[in-house]
Amino acid sequence: MKTKETDDNIQQRLIRFVTLTNWILLVLSCVAGFVFFPSDFARGILFGGLIVTINFHMLARTLKNALTPPYIASHNFILARYYIRFVISGVIIFFLIANHYVNPIGLFIGLSVVVASIMLATLMEIKNLFLKEAI
Amino acid sequence: MEAQALQFFISSAVAAGFGIAIAAFGCGIGQGLGLKSAVEGIARNPEASGKVTVTMLIGLAMIESLCIYALVVSLILIYAHPQATAIAALFGAGH
Fold first, then answer.
1. N or C: which end of chain B has fewer CB within 10 A?
2. Do B54 and A15 touch (CB under 8 A)?
């Protein structure tokens, strides 16, 4: 029973950590970008980070609606939301790059915010694991 | 020389097309496998749907970011190649 509760805590802790770290990393990288780099680079970080963070939240909501019984949304609704989200992201990135509104390297850094926060969460869990084993 | 410059930009467009196609192929397979396993797990044990969904969310976000990276690289190759102006000038295009 205790193991099951611990597993639940791990899942919830992970998602809380990733969600919070997303926004923190986005703010920190934006501030660093606007202070230390040219404005197009900073805009790349800002737009990339916003796109990927909002995408992550919308994906979370879509998956929750699709896979959490007993109130599961219809397949059409889930598919429509998934593709609308994907198309909107693609179109925004297209216009940002095609109009040279952002620096591509900055956009890359912004788009890596979620990946970085997931990596951080994994490192935190590994650290906790080793600390527990040491005790 | 202008033909060489044109060849360079055609190659960039072809590389962009193949790049996003291969990335979408790989990411599609990866996401499909993850989703299949998650749905099977939830069908066998509906009580575990919360845990499975969170784990899958993190996995899907990682996979999806790879596809977005490929999209960005492809768009850069077509619309914002960093050396496009230099290469066009090198080959004498636009004169």
1. C
2. yes
* CA-based nearest residue to A103, from A53, A25, A42: A42
Q: Burial of A96 by CB count in 10 Å (0-12 exposed, 13-18 middle, 19+ buried)?
A: buried
The three-class DSSP label of residue A125 is: helix
Sign (positive or negative) of CA dihedral A112, A115, A117, A119: negative
Question: What's the half-sphere exposure (Cβ side, CA atoms, 13 Å) at A93?
Answer: 31
Architecture label for domain B2-89: Up-down Bundle (1.20)
Q: Would you state the torsion angle of the CA atoms of residues A116, B26, A89, A81, taken in this order, to the nearest 10 degrees?
A: -110
User: In terms of CA atoms, which chain A residue is nearest residue B81?
Assistant: A104
Which ipTM value was assigned to this complex? 0.79
Contact A14 B54 (CB under 8 A): yes
The domains of chain B are located at: 2-89
The region of weakest confidence among A25-34, A78-87, A114-123 is: A78-87
